[in-house]
Every structure is written in C-alpha cells, then in structure tokens.
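Reading group handout, session on sequence-to-structure problems. Before we discuss, look at one worked example. The prompt was deliberately terse, the way you'd type it at a terminal:

> structure Putative flavoprotein

The input record follows.
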Amino acid sequence: MLENKKTRKDSMRAMVIKAGVGMIRAVDWERRLFDSIIPLPYGTGYIAYLVEGKDKVALLEAVDPGD
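And the output record:
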C-alpha cells in the first residue's frame, strides 16, 4: 500500500493504454463522504478515457457535478 504522502504528489496523471486509447486520472483529496454516509479518508478518484477513431475523438468521463 502506498503511503499517503507519496500518493498526494500524484493528483493527476495521463497515460497511453494502447494506440488511440488514453486514460486521464485525477484524485480529489478534499472529498470526505460518498453518498453522505461512507467515509473517504483518502478522498476519491475520477478516471476519463480518450478514444481516437479514424474520423472522431470521444472522451468518456464521469465527474462530480458539485453543489
């Protein structure tokens, strides 16, 4: 398991999964609860995928809409 100090430095990362497919990951260290009842002591993460086709590009993502 990674130490909290080490993971906090790595709040956002992009990587190539394979040609034409990438992943973007972000960590929200400030979020403390999921569904108002489940504690999140280390925050939560969001992942998006970028898929490049012959003619178009798609971004598949899920984000916290906020308040």
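Points for discussion. First: The chain has one domain: 4-52. Second: Residues 4-8 form the longest helix (5 residues).
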